[in-house]
Amino acid sequence: MKQLLVFVLFAPLFCWLAFSPVYKHVLLVRQALLQQEADYLLEIGASGAYGYIDREMVAESRLRLARYGFRPELLEYDIESTNGMPADQPAEPLPRGVGLRLEIRYPYERLLDIDRLIGLDVPGPEGRIAASGMKMSEYVP
């Protein structure tokens, strides 16, 4: 009876020890991919040729991230400028020296639920992985 009790008590710990590193690795890779995409969009959007990040660029970004397993409809993009001008309008590119700020968010999708087995708090359904950055516009009219 004692052996069964020990098994029942330690089974969640063994499961967590076996699978938690895999889920943490997936989380790290997702975070790195989001940050890489944010950096890429900022590099293109703040270049001298653009000065903005528009809907087309965001749609292409969603497709690139979908190739890595992200669900495009769950990706959230926040694009803004440091001076309050719209940062997503091709007709009004941000002039040189104005900051272009981007944040991409994606839900955890119950990725860390296995941590509950050992009593750790996990992010709720509203929790998001986020990647962000800012780059000064180089656009000169």
How helix-rich are the residues, as a percent range? Answer: 25-40%
Residue fraction in strands: 15-25%
Residue ranges: pLDDT <50 for 5 or more in a row? none
* Helix vs. strand class: alpha+beta
Instruction: Quote the distance from N terminus to C terminus.
Output: 80 Å
Strands in their spatial order, largest beta sheet: 1-2-3
Instruction: Please count the helical segments.
Output: 2
- Please provide the count of β strands: 3
Mean pLDDT: 89
Shape: elongated
Rg, Cα atoms, Å? 21 Å
Order of helices and strands: HHEEE
Q: How many domain regions?
A: 1
Largest sheet: 3 strands, antiparallel
Topology:
Elements: H1 2-45, H2 55-66, E1 76-81, E2 99-107, E3 128-136
Helix pairs in contact: 1-2
Compact description:
This protein has one domain (2-136). It contains two helices and three strands.
Account of the 3D structure:
By secondary structure, the chain is an alpha+beta fold. The chain has one domain (2-136). 40% of the residues lie in helices and 17% in strands. The protein contains two helices and three strands. It has helices spanning 2-45, 55-66; strands at residues 76-81, 99-107, 128-136. Strands 1-2-3 form a three-stranded antiparallel β-sheet, with helices on one face. It is elongated and about 80 Å long. The chain starts with a helix and ends in a 5-residue tail after the last strand. The mean pLDDT is 89.
